[in-house]
């Protein structure tokens, strides 16, 4: 691969779930647009947050929600369930990291509206280091000529690439 695509929040989230998924996404092998789970995720986010929800696009960042919280800006990441909580946490940490690189200090909030849960996320020095290392690992993965082999995992059932991997 000549040029490494820009690392996005989706790649960071997927890396925690399945490296093969990241490689496929980086080659823009598009998942099934009709995938019901993707759509469900969109709908739940809209319904639960109604007027409060704002899709904020800043360069390569797609933030579900941004609001003022005290002195700081709060970036919210809305998820259908906390099943992939760690992946969602790293996605949000990535957004905070990238915003900091742009000179914007923000706090994060993970939102699981179906479970009526929210979790605060602060980008401290150790989390920032984790994000930096994660970005380096993703870049190394994307540079590979071939994707890692498919390996069955707990997220395959709901993955948009399932047909590609297991047909
Ligand atoms: S179906 Fe499973 S192995 Fe294939 S990309 Fe999705 S999560 Fe990874």
Can you describe this structure in just a few lines?
The protein is an alpha+beta fold and 167 residues long. It contains 6 helices and 6 strands; from the N terminus they run αααββββαββαα.
Can you tell me about this structure?
This protein is of the alpha+beta class. It has a single domain (9-166), classed as Lambda Exonuclease, Chain A (Alpha-Beta Complex), CATH 3.90.320. Helices cover 43% and strands 18% of the residues. The strands form two sheets. A four-stranded mixed beta sheet has the order 3-4-5-6, covered by helices on one side. A two-stranded antiparallel sheet has the order 1-2. Helix 1 packs antiparallel against helix 4 and helix 4 (85-101) crosses helix 5 (125-143). It binds iron/sulfur cluster.
Largest beta sheet: what is the strand line-up?
A: 3-4-5-6
Number of strands: 6
**What is the N-to-C succession of helices and strands?**
HHHEEEEHEEHH
Percent strand: 15-25%
Domain module tally: 1
Ligand types: iron/sulfur cluster
What is the helix tally?
Answer: 6
Q: What's the pLDDT, averaged over the residues?
A: 82
Envelope shape: globular
CATH architecture: Alpha-Beta Complex
Main sheet: strands, sense, barrel: 4 strands, mixed
* CATH-defined topology: Lambda Exonuclease, Chain A
Structural class: alpha+beta
Helix content, binned percent:
40-55%
Unreliable spans: 39-53
Head-to-tail CA distance between termini: 26 Å
- What is the top-level CATH class? Alpha Beta
Rg result: 16 Å
């Amino acid at each position: 691969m000549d040029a490494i695509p820009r690392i996005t929040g989706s790649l960071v989230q997927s890396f925690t779930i399945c490296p093969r998924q990241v490689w496929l996404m980086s080659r823009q092998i598009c998942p099934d647009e009709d995938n019901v789970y993707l759509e469900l995720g969109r709908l739940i986010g809209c319904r639960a947050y109604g007027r409060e929800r704002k899709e904020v696009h800043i360069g390569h960042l797609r933030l579900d929600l941004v609001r003022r919280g005290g002195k700081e800006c709060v970036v919210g990441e809305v998820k259908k369930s906390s099943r992939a909580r760690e992946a969602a946490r790293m996605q949000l940490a990535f957004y905070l990291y990238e915003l900091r690189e742009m000179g914007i200090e923000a706090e994060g909030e993970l939102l699981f509206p179906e479970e009526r849960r929210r979790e605060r996320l602060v980008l401290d020095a150790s989390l920032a280091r984790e994000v930096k290392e994660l970005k380096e690992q993703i870049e190394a993965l994307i540079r590979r000529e071939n994707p890692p082999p498919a390996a069955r995992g707990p997220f395959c059932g709901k993955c948009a690439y399932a047909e590609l991997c297991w047909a």
